[in-house]
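yo

u said u wanted the structure for the complex thing, so here. seqs first:
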Amino acid sequence: SQQGEEDPQALSIQEGENATMNCSYKTSINNLQWYRQNSGRGLVHLILIRSNEREKHSGRLRVTLDTSKKSSSLLITASRAADTASYFCATEDSTLTFGKGTMLLVSP
Amino acid sequence: NAGVTQTPKFRVLKTGQSMTLLCAQDMNHEYMYWYRQDPGMGLRLIHYSVGEGTTAKGEVPDGYNVSRLKKQNFLLGLESAAPSQTSVYFCASSTGTSWNEQFFGPGTRLTVL
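structre next:
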């Protein structure tokens, strides 16, 4: 199975700014998912984008998928301190494989 | 609904001891998973189950055994714990294949001395 790789590893921004995280992977996928993990907690599903989709929105989240470049991006608009967490992409082949995550710090 | 629950939340073992981690879900999900999370490593799949009475190996199965005797429960066993198994263990469940949204438990922090 393959592993998505998030970039950057860490990101620090101010409240109100936008945060962009990227995920790259190596082989063809059926779908790609993004999860959030608050410190000391389990992961929470944010959004799933299928291989035939290019963009998806959910509230302040916008996810894009470029299968030709084998990459996805997660944009959080108008960030809040409560968005401080680690964000993981997960790619699906026979099972779901998680990347190592991006740690996002949003300062008030 | 409680969702996915894990027991215990914390545990300290000595090398060679055994223990069982319990995962329970009340969402009637068919699929259940056990992951471990180590610093800088992301989540790695240990074992998973596609239904009651079935189990399958994931990416890092060595040193672990699992059982799914009831649909709502998925047990992870360590027969002879090693320091390399110090980690945070997460259980998850989903309605169907892994390409559905997975619901995670709060985790079990295990330290092996």
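Residues 94 and 100 of chain B are 6 Å apart (CA to CA). The longest strand of chain B covers residues 31-38.
cya
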